[in-house]
Amino acid sequence: MMETEPTEDIDQPLRDRLKAHPGPALLWGAILCVLLLLEGPTYLDGLLGAIGAGLGLLPGAPGAEAFASASAYFGELPHLLSRELIPNRGYYDGSAWQGTFLGLEPKYAWLIRFLLVYAYVAVLLGWLWYGYVLFRRHYRAADWTPTDDVIDRLRSHYWGLFGLAVVVFFVTMAAFAPVIGPTTAEENIEGPYSYDMQYYNEDTETVETVTIGEANLGSASRGSGDSNVGVWSYDDFGRFHPVGTLVSGKDLFTFLAFGARLSLFIGLGSMAIAGFIATTLALVTAYYKGAADLIVVLTSDSVQAMPALLLVILATVVFQNHWISELYNGAMLFILLFALIRWPGLWRAIRGPALQVGEQEWVDAAKSYGQRPTVIMRKHMAPYILGYLLVYASLTLGGVIISVSALSFIGLGINAPTPEWGRAINIGQQYVASQSWHISLIPGLLITLVVTGFNALSDGIRDAIDPQSEGAEGGAAGAAAGGGGG
Amino acid sequence: MSESVVDTVSHQTGETLVDVQDLKTYYEDGGLLGSDPVKAVDGVNFEIARGETFGLVGESGCGKTTLGRTLIQLETATSGAVSFDGTDITELSGGDLKEWRRNAQMVFQDPESSLNDRMTVGEIIREPLDVHEQGTARERREKVRTLLDQVGLMPEHYYRYPHQFSGGQRQRIGIARALALEPEFVVLDEPVSALDVSVQAQILNLLEELQEEFGLTYLFIAHDLSVVRHICDRVGVMYLGNLMEVGPTEQLFQSPENPYTRALLSAIPEPDPTVQVDRITLPGSPPSPRDPPEGCPFATRCPVRIRPEDIDASDAVWDRIREFRDVIRERSRAEQSVGERLKERLGFDTALADSEEIVEEEFDDVTLPPDVQEHVEQAATYLSDGDPDAARAYLREVFGSQCDTETPQYYDVDDRQMSFCHRHAQEHVSPGDELRQRGYDTHDG
Ligand code: SF4
């Protein structure tokens, strides 16, 4: 406890506390360095690529070239989680596998890479957690904060943890999509006829070269007869498909990984925008009340009164040839549309907590010494509604993922060949009762799992920030701490 | 007792710090546009001398908290002036207002709600200093530690969170925050009412020590009269947005003059159980601050309301008349509601059916003098015609007096003690005499 600490320590800034006790922090930094070294080129590639893409949107695209080439340069450097380091494609020359990692079967080579990705993410998360624990134990001036209780409650909320695990699984899949699949979207899905591959022809006993497109024709899953490549199997070209192939013979796992990227991008993007709008409006209406509140109520009611599905369909048609629907295959348009449609729901969900916190005397106290309204909203009100925002945003996010899939399912949404889960379900629906059931069913189950995961996480956060909602009192830290009397 | 004018009081304590002149604070309470505003503070005059503790008492809802909040500009005054050291602060805005805010701070009622739980104690106390950019970061931290010490907490509490403290300790944190900018004037809004009795005394003592040390001027809002008696130099008694009586604490407690003050004080349990004092129980509940009575705010409940001379009735009959007027009054207010109006339009005759019932209920066990009987019947006719407003106006006309029509003045009733009541005018019997005449026990001479 802090009672024993000498008074002089009270004023020590974080820097001094680090200096006084550098060990744990150094270890933590060292782990970070290792993690960065292992995967550094990927991060640089991604970062520079994003900057380049951003610049490319500006008129004249100043410097976009340079960033793109720098990004490409780093993209080629060796790193841990790469297809080049652990290749899973090769051919069987009758006696051994050629071109695969350590001459292993493609199945195992892929599995190793897959598991390595998750191991890396697990270490990364562990490192973050370790950092929090270190900070809490060694460097934080306060020996207890309200956040500690929230985190502790979340730690023992198994349903919430399950949700968190699903979300991490899904986010990792999306983030590492180019590495995690047995092949890449570019080669296998978007331009199969621009890439060649080699395989071992058993009849002629020679290694032959075909375009991937041609090979795909031979690996199609069409429900009947010989043409099916199911779950956990090889096709005739020695390619391994963890969850089978599509009707077109493309790899379903790769399709799903890139589809996850798209779903997550749309979900997170639209929730970030909608959440920002909802929070800003909730704070402003709770602070100023009266006319401001009335205007927002009317606006949100009119937005909610619009038939959302029709609006989205209309917008996809209207913007068909607009530049905005070119951005990321129309994902950008969806982000904006879903942000527009979903903010009123979020705002309504956090309006109550916002009004409640606006009534607190500490807000009056801040006004009484002349704190600026923007600071009052940010510092004295926002922290109390962000938790609720997270809860409802992750609930809504599941809804957005379903909506995008549903739209793609009916042929609106994201256009072929961009991978999207709803489209896979659509493609495979006529084969559900056949041996090619995997085409529809696996993406369907995945959507269910992901949406359930987000809901579970949202439950977990809700119970963690608001233990009364579960009927269990958090108990906080004893009020008797400290001996100031009074 | 002579008629006198306001603002002639001189304080032994020195010059005036806060001078409140005819202050009104009305607010729209989120109701439909055009509904009557809540008249929380409805024309209040008083002064607070530098260095004194001025108590403000009254039942909840009387406007004392709104008054306190207006004095530190948390609420905007509708009209009137609050001059602070000679500056009318109701006119200030922008940078001037922010600059002035250093001078006046507030300690809030509920220590659970007054501290932001997500900030450390240090951050909470330091925020006013940060807002006004006082000194360097290090100096501010230093100042916070000094403040912690001054309010009886420990320097190491800097990095604790409010959750880790008891109610009394939290209130000490609130006090430290209020004192951070070294204000001259502090509004204490029921600072101990949420605390355990055992802790109350400690906080009150702390407040008194701090006042002495820093020469603070307090406005102490409370409804616990014994606390007020303990800590305040002077007291103002509020009822329905008006200040009914002002005077030095002991004097006012010992010899209250205003009928409302007498009623309020008679509710304090007598420390000596052998002394039997009849409590003056007030009938009914305070009227809505949206629709206060026209003359004296206390007229609807006053035990010594002046009666018109041309009607001779017993106390019991007057009691019934008062109740009857209360009912009609409620009626006419309710009638303004949309639902009632709609019902009326649609021909649901709500009034007719029960107007006789009301009369019967009120008057069935007393014999009314003929003139009173006549007036009551006339009012009942208006009521059954579906016009409670007319009934209300009629009753006011025939049974009303100065109390219902004219706003009283402040009368000097004793040294530095002023009361807001017509009965202090020469032509009327004083409230005390009238009370005794009407059969109440009063414990003053
Ligand atoms: S003015 Fe009339 S109603 Fe008001 S307190 Fe005096 S006697 Fe009572």
UniProtKB/TrEMBL annotation, chain A:
CDD domains: TM_PBP2. The chain crosses the membrane at residues 25-44, 110-130, 158-180, 262-288, 295-317, 323-341, 385-416, 436-457. It is found in: Cell membrane. It comes from the Archaea. Gene3D superfamilies: MetI-like. SUPFAM superfamilies: MetI-like. It is a multi-pass membrane protein. The keyword Transport applies. It holds the Pfam family BPD_transp_1. Keywords: Cell membrane, Membrane, Transmembrane, Transmembrane helix, Transport. Its main location: membrane. InterPro entries: BP-dependent_transpt_permease (IPR050366), MetI-like (IPR000515), MetI-like_sf (IPR035906), OppC_N (IPR025966). Belongs to the binding-protein-dependent transport system permease family. This is Peptide ABC transporter permease. It comes from Haloarcula sebkhae.
From TrEMBL, chain B:
One of its GO terms (molecular function) is ATP binding. Residues 424-445 are annotated as: Disordered. Transmembrane segments: none annotated. One of its GO terms (biological process) is peptide transport. Residues 18-265 form the ABC transporter domain. It holds the Pfam family ABC_tran. It comes from the Archaea. SUPFAM superfamilies: P-loop containing nucleoside triphosphate hydrolases. Keywords: ATP-binding, Nucleotide-binding, Transport. InterPro entries: AAA+_ATPase, ABC_transp_ATP-bind, ABC_transporter-like_ATP-bd, ABC_transporter-like_CS, Oligopep_ABC_C, P-loop_NTPase. Gene3D superfamilies: P-loop containing nucleotide triphosphate hydrolases (3.40.50.300). Belongs to the ABC transporter superfamily. This is ABC transporter ATP-binding protein. It comes from Haloarcula sebkhae. The lineage of its organism: Archaea, Methanobacteriati, Methanobacteriota, Stenosarchaea group, Halobacteria.
